[in-house]
Design goal:
336 residues; alpha/beta; N-(1-d-carboxylethyl)-l-norvaline Dehydrogenase, domain 2; binds nicotinamide-adenine-dinucleotide
Length: 336
């Protein structure tokens, strides 16, 4: 059995702790937030987002970062993406050489436009950074709903080790060498989920949402491949898999925020109502900047940015998307 610490005591951190502890691993959860630790220690429940789920008593919840990082086989980074750098910076002095760190947070850093594994590599250069991502709502994972996910790592050995530690008979873990593809798929889909929620909020149909999802993935894979990701990854669990679940599930905060905007709420009102970090908003800005830096056309990303930050109405944004110049579906496909 392995010793695993999860940094971040939110919905996903707690759900993964339940999976790992259920498998017999020794699990510690660290949080910086005193009230969060207190509530978890007192109730053994994450009342807000995992109704019905209970943290087994053998899981330790701590505010002591040094103890959380000591003698661990795996550290899991599960804080919300805006806090990955600050958390990694705090943890770095306690992290040993070659420490496996599995990032499960999704996003792109504001300003630097780094993926989160790049942020971790910069803050904790001595660590062996991996990612775990896929269609995996915490609410379902904590209830043992069958789920599949993919781990990306720099070596086959690390990938297989993480696969062995996390995999159960209802939590199936695949392996991949494509870390950047997995990360980009996992973070950029949140932008498309905002757009998908918006068209649902406007009251359009399934055709419209399918169009946004498919053309959204065309944009993600176009950018992702230029940045080094592989097409197979974008067609896989952390690509289409995660896009599908995020655009169609009531658990998705990005979809929910988009839905509220489609119904006429401003971005600020939607964020307030969803009452959690809506990572798609930051990722939308980052995706647009990455598109410009890499000279990639991303019309849905452009329009969702206008809705989010320039007060464009969702209806006008959709009309502008529909009325662009005529195109081929894929530039790469040619007649003989
Ligand atoms: N919830 C899911 O179903 C799910 C599934 C897969 C991946 N993820 C990803 O996991 C990450 C966490 O999501 P979540 O749903 O657990 O979010 P959450 O809002 O429930 O929890 C985020 C946690 O971040 C930590 N945090 C907040 N502010 C902090 C600060 N200033 N410094 C350090 N830590 C701080 C806290 O422990 C907080 O509980 C996100 O990037 C999300 O995209 C979530």
């Amino acid at each position: 059995m392995s010793n695993v610490s999860i940094l971040g005591a939110g919905t996903w951190g707690c759900a993964l702790a339940i999976v790992l502890s259920g498998k017999g691993h020794n699990v510690t959860i660290w949080t910086k937030i005193e009230n969060e630790a207190k509530a978890l220690n007192e109730n053994r429940k994450n009342m807000k987002n995992l109704p019905g789920a209970e943290l087994p008593d053998k899981i330790t919840v701590t505010l002591d970062l040094e103890a959380a990082c000591k003698d661990k086989d795996i550290l899991v980074m599960a804080v919300a993406s805006p806090y990955i750098r600050s958390t990694a910076h705090l943890a770095s002095p306690y992290v040993k050489e070659g420490q496996i760190i599995v990032n499960v947070s999704k996003g792109i850093e504001d300003g630097t436009l780094y993926t989160l594994s790049e942020v971790l590599k910069e803050e904790i250069p001595q660590a062996d950074i991996a990612v775990l991502s896929g269609p995996s709502h915490a609410e379902e994972v904590s209830r043992g709903v069958p789920t599949t996910i993919v781990v990306g790592a720099t070596t086959k050995e690390t990938a297989h080790f993480i696969q062995d530690v996390f995999m159960t008979d209802v939590f199936r873990v695949y392996t991949s060498p494509d870390i950047i593809g997995i990360e980009l798929g996992g973070s950029l889909k949140n932008v498309i989920a905002l757009a998908a929620g918006t068209v649902d909020g406007l009251g359009y149909g399934d055709n419209t949402k399918a169009a946004l999802m498919t053309r959204g993935m065309a944009e993600i894979s176009r950018l992702g491949m230029i940045m080094g990701g592989k097409m197979e990854t974008f067609a896989g669990l952390s690509g289409f898999g995660d896009l599908f679940v995020t655009c169609t599930s009531k658990h998705s905060r990005n979809w929910n925020a988009g839905y509220l905007m489609g119904q006429g709420k401003t971005m600020e009102e939607a964020m307030k109502q969803v009452n959690q970090v809506v990572e798609g908003v930051n990722s939308a800005k980052a995706a647009l900047a990455l598109a410009r830096r890499n000279n990639v056309e991303m019309p849905i990303v452009e329009q969702i940015n206008k809705v989010l930050f320039e007060n464009k109405t969702a209806k006008d944004a959709l009309n502008d998307l529909l009325n662009r110049d005529k195109r081929k579906e894929y530039k790469t496909l040619e007649w003989d």
